[in-house]
# Entry
Amino acid sequence: MTRPSGYLIRMLVFLVVVGGVAGLLSPVLITAFFHNPELNSLILLILLVGICWNLLQVLRLRPEVRWLETYQTSRSRLAALPSPRLLAPMASMLAMREGRGNETRQFTLSATAMRSLLDSLASRLDESRELSRYMTGLLIFLGLLGTFWGLLNTVTSVSDVIGGMSLGNGDINLMFDQLKTGLARPLAGMGTAFSASMYGLAGALVLGFLDLTAGQAQNRFFNELEEWLAGLTRLSSGILSEGEGSVPVYVQALLEQTAENMEGLQRVLTQDGENRSQVNQAVTTLNERLAALADTMRANQHLMLRIAETQSVLGPALQRLGDLQGGDEVSRGHLRNIELGLQRLLAENEQGRSRATTDLRNDLRLLTRTVAALAEPPR
# Structure
């Protein structure tokens, strides 16, 4: 989202330029101001209120932008921010959604909900700008009012001057002195008219630019919000869109809820399929290990048979060698080697049997956990 600081800086720079121009023209403006101080003071007061109001319209967009950025990046920090005013309907919808425990799901909107949210925001923005437009028109009206007021005073004064002129004594100089004295009031009325028009039109010009800049900031905020909501909008099917105008609100809400439930069911079925594939893979692995264990047990059994056959063959020889009391050292070394070989075979057999038993126990434990996981109800 674009921050409204750029538009605020533009407005402040424009006000500084206007203040500089007013400072350069201050002698003329002060002289014009005292032609009608009451009406000109009212015009300046309305101008000051309009400037503050337009600046406030741009400043009130900052918490709305901050709230949207916080929602897009870190929803957990929304509780620390104040509730938005322009986006109050959206905040209410999100609060209801989180109250139902759907804060972990992706936020989606239907086309009707998006249109209602944007219409509500547009009406709030237009309502805030109506006062600024009224102040601009009021300044123009006060300028015209001062103009007609001054012209009315001018016409009345001219009429009084003409009616008061007389040539009874025949003195031309006295008549011109009376005319000069009488024309002071019409000139004062003209000063009132032109000063009020100047202040009113200048104030309307200033408020017009500020209102234009505030409108650009609000339109930028509205367009970016519309683009963001367009990415979260779920379009309905063609049948519903064709008859959307004739479908009741409760039926449309029921259809939307049904669509959400179907999406949740689809996600559950997808997760169940993934779990089943994992279970099938685990069972396949277990079968492979059981087959390897069976091969190992057959190999151990064959080894035991060979050991038994070897013992049966060596038994008589060992008996004869035991009977030989005076056998040499070579025969005794062979006997010890044979004994060590038999002990090594027995140890390897025992180790293979224990390893096979451990693998079988681990596979059975994995199979038990998998079956227990499948037995749990889906969330």
